[in-house]
Amino acid sequence: MLEIRKLVKTYNGRAALQGIDLILEKGEIYGLLGPNGAGKTTTLKILAGLISPDSGDILVNGEPYHRDDSSLKQKIAYVPDQPFVYQKLTGEEHLHFFADLYKIPMEARKEKFDFYFEYFEYELYRRELVETYSAGTRQKLLISQALLVEPEFLLLDEPLTSIDPLVARKFKTLLKKTAENGTVVIFATHILSLAQDVSRRIGVIIDGKIVTEGSLDELLKMSAGQNLDDFYFNTVMNYEKSI
Amino acid sequence: MKSLFKARIRQFKNTVSKSGKRKYVLFFLFAAAMWGLIGYVGFKVFGFLYYQDEFPMVFKLFVSEKILTMNFLTMFMMLILSALVSTLNIFFLSRDLQLLLSSPIRSRTVFIWKGLEVGFGSAVMVIFFSLPLLFAYSYYFAPGIGDIAAMILVFLLYIVCGVLLGIIVGMIIPAFFSVKKLQPVLSLVGIVFISGIVIFLRLLRPEEFGNPDVINNLLNYMAGLNISFMDYLPFSWISKGLTAIAEGNYGGYWKAVGAFGVVIFLLTSFVLFLQEKYYLVLFDKLNKGSRGGYRSSWKKSFFVRGTYAPLWKKEIKTFIRTPAQWSQLLIIGAIMIVFVLNIKGIPSGQQSVRTIIAFLNLGMAAFVVSGLNSRFTFPAIPMESPGIVHLLASPFKRGRLLHFKFVFFVVPQMIIGFVLFLAGDISLGLDAFARGSGFVFLAPVLPFLTVLSLFYSLKIRETVPLTPNSLLASRSGVSYMLWSMTYIVLGMVYFVRPLFLYYYNRFRGYPVPVLEISLWFAAFVLLNIFIMAVLYRRSLSTWNKKEFSE
Q: For a designed S-S bond to A16, which of A42, A175, B515, B519 qualifies (C-beta 3.0 to 4.6 A apart)?
């Protein structure tokens, strides 16, 4: 279980997060929606250990989370919002590098690698330098890298950026399967259909606060029969009017 | 072209206003110090020649011309090599090319614009290092305003000539070789250029310039140093042009300018021909990248094991696959070879002279390692971004990355530092004390420089991808360079005392104060270890607190 309590983060006097509270149960997929600069990426970066919160607590299975606690981070995998990769490694070497960091035994790797290169349809690029990859192929590599380590907590920031519809569908299927196996998934996205298709719960974050959350059905009920697109638009517009 | 120029100026202004003035003041101070040093050496050398009353002016100008040729030869090779590497980067791999080539701007305009970028980028260091020498030469031999204007013209033509040659080589190599073979071919070209510098410098025989034993017959001496085929090479034309200015021989000057003019015209025509026929084809080829065939191995190794193994493997693979790293290492290698060969060429004179040269060699070894740190260690962590995001999100402990970077760079740099020092010392045939004190000096100084560069590199805030050059020009980069040089100079000044104590007493026949000398050495080592430990701890603390919010 992942528990976030009153998470606050400020950048140069500007509040990025203003007391986020969130509890994610085992096997849950949580979608974070929100305008640019709302705090989605900051939340995920804090969970990934890239930045520290100014205040608030994060509990991983009841234990306090510290960003340099390697035993807890062993359970977390992260896909950033941009396809950051080591350009001069081949795709396969890139996966080996992360498998080494997560101490995945060498003998267990081949089968997994074969699966991800095949499943996400980029086997052809396996032995190519990553610098020659298209943006979409890089994203596939990063998703493979995160799923490869079989994390307890999977953090995804804009996971479908540049991904083609076929692989996007495959990704959604795999994500649901991963959650069924007990992984907690939290992702940030602007693609509403992703949130709609895979999330058990969806939260809308604006100005560093979760202004509304619930299952898709609950949200749609609140929006009086509108679709998620309309609901999201109205939520953001209403919030802006209220301030 | 006007729009491209305006965009570039705007980018520069924005960078300046964002970075603050202090950085530029530091940079200016550093540049002024370098200029001062080169200018001082130039004024000393040309002043010495100028005031030798027993020799005729023609001889003084002859020796000056040889000295200038040595400088212009080295700079010309550097210019071509630098333009070659810049051509590959700027003409084919620049991030803005996709945008520019898809815009309504003609591809020739883009090409010419990029050519100017290549020219400026490759020439700036050559201009920077040559100007003080030219000032010194002009001060003694060609002080008139007209003389200076003539010197500037011939110098600019020399620069243009070198840049055009570099661009041509940089366009021909990818035309004939696959992208995968570019790296070994570039390495080979680098070695050819290095060999060229060494061979030409040896042919010039610089050690003979100041050797009074062979100057018994000036004409024989001058004839002995004349190498006729060098008259056909551009770095010789500029020296001859400058000599002609000093002699008031305007026919000779315009001959040099004419030679440059013809060659530049031919080279420009050839470059434009290459652009017309091959530029877009090569652009496609290089941007498609290399396909297949990489040894995608990631096996357990006997040598690299344990927690740090993945980082070793990644760094070594990245280093081997990055030609820019190789080419710069080759340039540094060339400087080292030339330096050692020149030390070997110094006539064996008195022990005291050799000891002083060895002492300066010690500082030189430290300066070379400082340069290596600024090029390789300093950008190592900032350049790790943005891939570093994954590393920090993984279970790999943060502090370990810093330990790894330190070990990864300090070991080869210590080897290079000691090899450089030993090569010089063995060539000079020094005594055991000089060698021992060299070890005492370098053993703490070399790792200290690596720690210092890491310390300053962690002060860089940006986590977006940067180039090593832009990092070095940052406030932290300039601070590192200033402090590393100050530190080496202070270290050398400190060492004067124990060396003096030893050699003075030996020369006088007094007993050597072993205890006092040992205390000086011990204090030096302990002080360095202490400061190093403090700096490393502070680096670690900065690193652990560092946030990646960009």
A: A42
